[in-house]
Specification:
Distance between the termini: 58 Å
CATH architecture of the largest domain: Orthogonal Bundle
Largest sheet: 5 strands, mixed
CATH class of the largest domain: Mainly Alpha
Bound molecules: protoporphyrin IX containing FE
Number of strands: 13
Radius of gyration: 25 Å
Helix content: 40-55%
Strand content: 5-15%
CATH topology of the largest domain: Cytochrome p450
Number of helices: 22
Strand order of the largest sheet: 1-2-10-7-3
Structural class: alpha+beta
CATH superfamily of the largest domain: Cytochrome P450
């Protein structure tokens, strides 16, 4: 009996499996390629659109379709563009078939200009077919512990904040009141960030190395295009060599041992895979791009938005006043102390303003390669094509953000009882899923620190008027719209502080307070 019962069960299961296979096959057959958005100019129309409008071109195409994903044909290939947060979440789970590793390996080689041996180390096992070891596969994961809230991040934050405080003191006592805001921020944040990462022997403290780094960054497009880079990107290639050599000397002297847990993790990872010291040096020039390229533009836009809206400035000042402790100081003056930890926890208007700034100025895209024919929801994606999630496409969708999506509303992200908040996956400033930016806690602390120092201590007016964001300054490799590098401001210590012998101290008690900058952070908020 038992035997017959078992056979019956097996038969029923077999029939079910056949039916299921038939159903799945049918569902697959019903899958269609994402709808194609065509250009009015055949063949090269989309390429011209991308060159002219950069990432904003996808926004223009999005407005021609209501599909959650669409296809842009470009010379024998397709670029699939995601427009829906629901599909973003699915893509984030499909890390094997919609892969990041081949893209990183290609970009790392072109950006770093490493040796052929270095390149073969990077290329090893990028498809994961040899197991879960491979330079690219493990590289970003090694950095995560150093950048997660905890003692290593606190150590970096403290050095960064002390450097920002020094910059503010120098600004307050400077006889020059007119300055180029972008270049000032770029230099001061480069110094603050790199001391916190590299320690006392920071190679970027040498002005020649810092200048070379920004020269290299400015020529990145031609390095990525990679057509005769020694001719088409000569100055950027030379600058990269200079930065790489400075880092090589730094590592050869063992100076990283006095640096952060982050630089040590990066160095140990490269040694473990057998990279030469020369390649480690040149890789670090590339590593600085992630660390430096997006923070100063964010800080610029934050200050520009706050200072061009006097009502927002006043609201932010009121919040800073609530977290400032004042006590008697030297020479009859006062000492004002601000603990940066309290900004994330107790200044909702300032943090909401930062989120709105990031929403408006994000121009980055998450890029994936379709490594095998893949079904995404009801869409069939073909192997060899590229999948893009441009942040600006999601950040400007009125079905996600409301009719006032184009308006800068510094209170948009403020929570209030009964208020409907936007979907967290629609906010892509720091990416998401397996490539979520691990530097977001450091970067947000840094931007909030510089903004708070300004709000607390300085009045600032534009020379002329505040320049509007220029879409032409979006670069393919950065996440944040570049500011105008030639713009000047008049800056003074606040009238009420003038002539007073007050001093300011900025400190950080601990960074465990997680401020939700990505959907993934929501689980961490309020854990402690
Ligand atoms: C406001 C400043 C910053 C913004 C807007 C930003 C944004 C992003 C975004 C959108 C990604 C994901 C890219 C993708 O999906 O392909 C990313 C990745 C990354 N970011 Fe940031 N970032 C910032 C600052 C930083 C800082 C300061 C660091 C380091 C200290 C950093 C380290 C990284 C790294 C290592 C990755 C690669 C992660 C991976 O692929 O696993 N970022 N960032």
């Amino acid at each position: 009996m038992v035997q017959y019962g078992l056979l019956g069960t097996i038969g029923a299961v077999a029939l079910l499996l056949v039916a299921l296979r038939k159903f799945l096959k049918q569902s697959n057959d019903e899958c269609k390629e994402p709808p194609i958005v065509r250009s009015t100019i055949p063949l090269i129309g989309h390429i011209l659109g991308m060159i002219r409008y950069k990432v904003f071109y996808y926004q223009m195409l999005r407005d021609q379709t209501s599909a959650p994903i669409f296809s842009v044909p470009v010379i024998g290939k397709s670029i699939y563009v995601i427009t829906s947060p629901q599909l973003v979440s699915t893509v984030q789970r499909m890390t094997k078939t919609l892969a990041f590793e081949p893209i990183v390996a290609m970009a790392t080689q072109r950006v770093s200009g490493c040796s052929p041996q270095g390149n073969s180390i990077i290329q090893y096992n990028i498809d994961g077919s040899q197991g879960d070891r491979g330079y690219v596969i493990t590289f970003f994961k090694t950095m995560h512990p150093a950048l997660a809230p905890g003692p290593s991040l606190d150590a970096m934050n403290r050095i960064m904040i002390q450097n920002i405080a020094k910059s503010a003191d120098a600004l307050a006592t400077s006889p020059v009141n007119r300055l180029n805001l972008c270049k000032w921020l770029r230099h001061e944040l480069t110094i603050a960030t790199t001391y916190s990462v590299y320690g006392p022997a920071n190679p970027m403290a040498d002005a020649k190395v810092e200048d070379a780094f920004w020269e290299f960054e400015g020529g990145l497009m031609m390095l990525l295009v990679n057509v005769l880079p020694s001719i088409t990107a000569r100055r950027a290639s030379e600058a990269r060599i200079a930065v790489g050599k400075a880092f090589q000397r730094y590592f050869e002297k063992g100076e990283h041992l006095n640096g952060s847990a982050l630089v040590q993790a990066r160095y140990n990872h490269s040694r473990e895979y057998g990279l030469s010291m020369e390649d480690i040096g040149t890789f670090e020039a590339g590593g600085c791009l992630a660390t430096l390229a997006n923070t100063f533009p964010t800080a610029y836009w934050m200050l520009a938005y706050i200072y061009s809206h006097p009502d927002v400035l006043q609201e932010c000042r009121n919040e800073v006043a609530t977290i400032t402790t004042t006590k008697p100081g030297e020479d009859g003056g006062r000492l004002h102390v601000i603990d940066m930890t309290t900004i994330k926890a107790s200044c909702p208007v300032i943090t909401a303003t930062l989120q709105e700034v990031l929403r408006h100025t994000s121009v980055g895209s998450t890029v994936r390669e379709v490594v095998e024919d893949t079904t995404l929801d009801v869409y069939a994606l073909k192997k060899g094509n590229t999948l893009l999630t441009p942040a600006n496409v999601l950040h400007t969708d009125s079905s996600l953000w409301g009719a006032n999506t184009d308006t800068f509303d510094h209170r948009r992200f403020l929570r209030a009882p009964g208020k409907k908040m936007p979907s967290p996956t629609a906010f892509r400033a720091f990416g998401g899923g397996s490539t979520l930016c691990p530097g977001r806690h450091f970067a947000t602390t840094e931007v909030l620190a510089i903004a708070t120092v300004f709000i607390a201590r300085f009045d600032m007016l534009p020379v002329g008027s505040w320049p509007p964001p220029d879409r032409g300054n979006a670069q393919f490799w950065t996440q944040i719209l570049g500011p105008n590098l030639d713009f000047e401001v008049e800056i003074h210590e606040r009238k009420e502080l003038k002539g007073v012998k007050d001093k300011w101290a900025f400190q950080l008690s601990e960074s465990k307070v997680v401020f939700a900058m990505a959907a993934e952070d929501l689980n961490e908020v309020g854990k402690e």
